[in-house]
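Please decode residue identities from the backbone states below.
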């Protein structure tokens, strides 16, 4: 049995300055710091002292979110590049306006970087969805097979969307037609029962940052 809580990192600088997030090390805003504190306080009250292993992306915005939340839960985050956001290649360090004007392939409506198919790259040297899936797969197998029943994962919107797809047992080709998107500070609850059924109890609950 597994209880997995995922946290999408809270508000960071690229949410307010018009720049691309990706592998650029943006820090949290003051709002993001307060949001992470609220998540930590509320999870601490809810989890009632149960011990959780915590894994986090090593990018600054996720790392800071994890460190703040971990202080409330008496745990130590383990940082890994497997949980990084999509690498957007030449778009890293560029503005979102630049990204809109320089996409190397068709992208989903209302997005600037979600390539239409799992093998397309929205920018030169960017990761495809398939490549992120493969990057995440070893980490995913590790945590579902280890002895930790209670796990917290702090990561990014795109990477978490892949993680949820793996959790539900979807085929990668499904991501040509669907996506499980989130917002900054969203908290999700995943559960595996004694018969190995996989459940997402709540997806991207934003009440933790209010």
């Amino acid at each position: 049995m597994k209880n997995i809580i995922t946290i999408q990192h809270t508000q960071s600088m690229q949410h307010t300055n018009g720049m691309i997030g990706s592998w650029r090390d943006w820090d949290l805003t003051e709002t993001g710091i307060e949001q992470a504190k609220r998540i930590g306080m509320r999870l601490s009250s809810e989890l009632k002292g149960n011990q959780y292993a915590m894994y986090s992306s090593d990018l600054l915005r996720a790392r800071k979110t994890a460190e703040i939340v971990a202080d409330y839960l008496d745990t130590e985050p383990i940082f890994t590049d497997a949980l990084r956001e999509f690498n957007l290649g030449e778009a890293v360090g560029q503005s979102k306006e630049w990204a809109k004007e320089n996409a190397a392939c068709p992208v989903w409506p209302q997005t600037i970087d979600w390539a239409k198919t799992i093998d397309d790259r929205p920018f030169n040297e960017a990761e495809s969805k398939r490549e992120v899936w493969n990057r995440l797969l070893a980490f995913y197998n590790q945590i579902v097979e280890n002895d930790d029943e209670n796990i917290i994962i702090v990561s990014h919107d795109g990477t978490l969307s892949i993680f949820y797809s793996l959790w539900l047992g979807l085929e990668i080709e499904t991501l040509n037609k669907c996506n499980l998107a989130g917002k900054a500070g969203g908290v999700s609850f995943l559960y595996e029962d004694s018969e190995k059924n996989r459940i997402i109890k709540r997806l991207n609950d934003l009440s933790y940052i209010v």
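Observation: The first strand starts at residue 2 and ends at 8.
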